[in-house]
């Protein structure tokens, strides 16, 4: 069995930065809260809980002097204001690329454009972006984009993990009905590289495994992209989800992982598969064809 | 035989305005030149010649006091400057919608965007737009758009008669590789309405006739659109081009005409067909199903 792991699999720069900031804060021994899940990965969250991180859904019980981590997805200015009013100490781990989307969206609004956010209205990143604007439009499907009326002006930003093909179709639709269209392509390059690589790898292997939280937006998109080119694609959270029957008559397995999937979870899967197929090509040819020893 | 004439067939507002300005100037009895063809319609040009208009390809022999008409396609500022230096009197019949493209393209350049013109680089309108810019990019095919490298910023305007589908595809391609994309959809509404109507009419009739100059960009595009939905589409300049064999086993004929096709040329074709099929449904049901008596 040949196992190929995508070079781009796992933590992106922004997530790695947020997790490191969280762990640094915990090491300082402070009473540390995280508003929402730091990243959309259940297993990493469990690890952080063991290290002392407290996860909260709302700000009700926060007290003066508590430390609050803002996760990589970012929040609206209203949340920051409320945290400051409560006298908490804020560790802002918002991904700088997401901060850049906030700034671009506000710039568009200042320039007089109604602003459309392309992305999932229920995702914390989109909620955070929308929170920086007066009256944003949000669209997550082509039907919603088509329903937008003809407009003289429109500014567009997008969720950093948006599917590139949806983005292209949405902009094409908008171009035909907006007289002046200003678009910031704010898809993170980590996202587009990961998506391109997933598509390519999925087309070359017999079975494709996509590792990451079921609640992770970018992992789910990787899975959808992979599935569209290779029906034998499976979204797993850990090695426990793997079923041996998936690999019947397969000679190669491709692996990728979302931007919120820690390296140690990917390692577990690769090690598990290498034990499973230890008599096969794996041991002879090396585990990772494409990682170049990164794993 | 049922004959349906598209409501939008024939002169657009800008062309009608240019022809009226030319005729008004001729009526004043001045020595009147037109730089290039006033409109891309051989038969209208012949009529204007008979009225006394002189058509020239260059400014060499112009003298102080001559009157020069700038056609609806517009020209570059360099031409206007040269005409002024020669002491000629300028009648600027540039379509106000084309002037608007000049202004938008210059605005983009002033704002720091490299400017891409989507359109035919050999068409006088595109040459005129390009003449207002320092170093414009021009693309007329999807291959040319795809060859544009990744860019931080790009501003886009387009030829007023551009095919809407090409425009959408081009913008979709650009959106994926330009970080900040500002697009002015400068396709004239007369053009997009005409194209939509041609597509719709062509799908409903057995044979489709598109009337207009073979050198008319917008007529040729109407023909291409019509041909893509109805293989029995024919581009004609006048009734003399019509072949009876085209209508074998046909029960309906659709007619549209480019923005540079005079009403009298359309009338000639409709009258010729109504004579040809005088025993048919035509006389009973009225010549024009969709013109609402406009013809």
UniProtKB/TrEMBL annotation, chains A, B:
List, alphabetically, the InterPro entries matched: LytB/IspH
Q: Which UniProt keywords apply?
A: 4Fe-4S, Iron, Iron-sulfur, Isoprene biosynthesis, Metal-binding, Oxidoreductase
Q: Does the keyword Ligase apply?
A: no
Annotated residues that bind dimethylallyl diphosphate are located at 40, 73, 123, 216-218, 260
Pfam families for this protein: LYTB
**Entry binding sites for (2E)-4-hydroxy-3-methylbut-2-enyl diphosphate:** 40, 73, 123, 160, 216-218, 260
- In which residues is [4Fe-4S] cluster bound? 12, 95, 188
Cofactor or coenzyme needed: [4Fe-4S] cluster
Cofactor descriptive note: Binds 1 [4Fe-4S] cluster per subunit.
Q: Per the record, what are the reactions this protein catalyses?
A: dimethylallyl diphosphate + 2 oxidized [2Fe-2S]-[ferredoxin] + H2O = (2E)-4-hydroxy-3-methylbut-2-enyl diphosphate + 2 reduced [2Fe-2S]-[ferredoxin] + 2 H(+); isopentenyl diphosphate + 2 oxidized [2Fe-2S]-[ferredoxin] + H2O = (2E)-4-hydroxy-3-methylbut-2-enyl diphosphate + 2 reduced [2Fe-2S]-[ferredoxin] + 2 H(+)
Function (record text): Catalyzes the conversion of 1-hydroxy-2-methyl-2-(E)-butenyl 4-diphosphate (HMBPP) into a mixture of isopentenyl diphosphate (IPP) and dimethylallyl diphosphate (DMAPP). Acts in the terminal step of the DOXP/MEP pathway for isoprenoid precursor biosynthesis.
The name this protein goes by in its record: 4-hydroxy-3-methylbut-2-enyl diphosphate reductase
Q: Which organism is it from?
A: Thermovibrio guaymasensis
Q: Which gene encodes it?
A: ispH
């Amino acid at each position: 069995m040949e196992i190929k792991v995508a070079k781009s699999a796992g933590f992106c720069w922004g997530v790695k930065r947020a997790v490191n900031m969280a762990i640094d804060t915990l090491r300082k021994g402070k009473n540390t809260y995280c508003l929402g899940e730091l990243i959309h990965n259940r297993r990493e969250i469990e690890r952080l809980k063991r290290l002392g991180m407290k996860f909260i859904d709302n700000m009700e019980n926060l007290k003066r002097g508590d430390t609050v981590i803002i996760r990589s997805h970012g929040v609206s200015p209203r949340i920051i204001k409320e945290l400051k009013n409560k006298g908490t100490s804020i560790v802002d781990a918002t991904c700088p690329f997401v901060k850049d989307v906030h700034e671009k969206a506000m710039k568009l609004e200042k320039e007089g454009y109604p602003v459309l956010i392309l992305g999932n209205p229920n995702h914390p990143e989109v909620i955070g972006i929308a929170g920086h604007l007066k009256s944003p439009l949000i669209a997550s499907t082509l039907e919603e984009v088509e329903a937008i009326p003809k407009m003289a002006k429109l500014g567009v930003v997008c969720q950093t993990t948006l599917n590139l093909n949806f983005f292209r179709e949405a902009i094409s639709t908008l171009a035909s009905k907006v007289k002046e269209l200003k678009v910031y392509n704010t898809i993170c390059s980590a996202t587009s590289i990961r998506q391109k690589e997933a598509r390519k790898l999925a087309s070359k292997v017999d079975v494709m495994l996509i590792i990451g939280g079921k609640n992770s937006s970018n992992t789910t998109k990787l899975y959808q992209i992979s599935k569209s080119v290779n029906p034998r694609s499976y979204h797993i959270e850990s090695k426990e989800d793997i079923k041996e029957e998936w690999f019947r008559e397969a000679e190669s397995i491709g692996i990728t992982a979302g931007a919120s999937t820690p390296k140690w979870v990917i390692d577990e899967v690769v090690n598990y598969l290498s034990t499973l197929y230890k008599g096969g090509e794996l041991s002879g040819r090396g585990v990772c064809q494409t990682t170049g020893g990164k794993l």
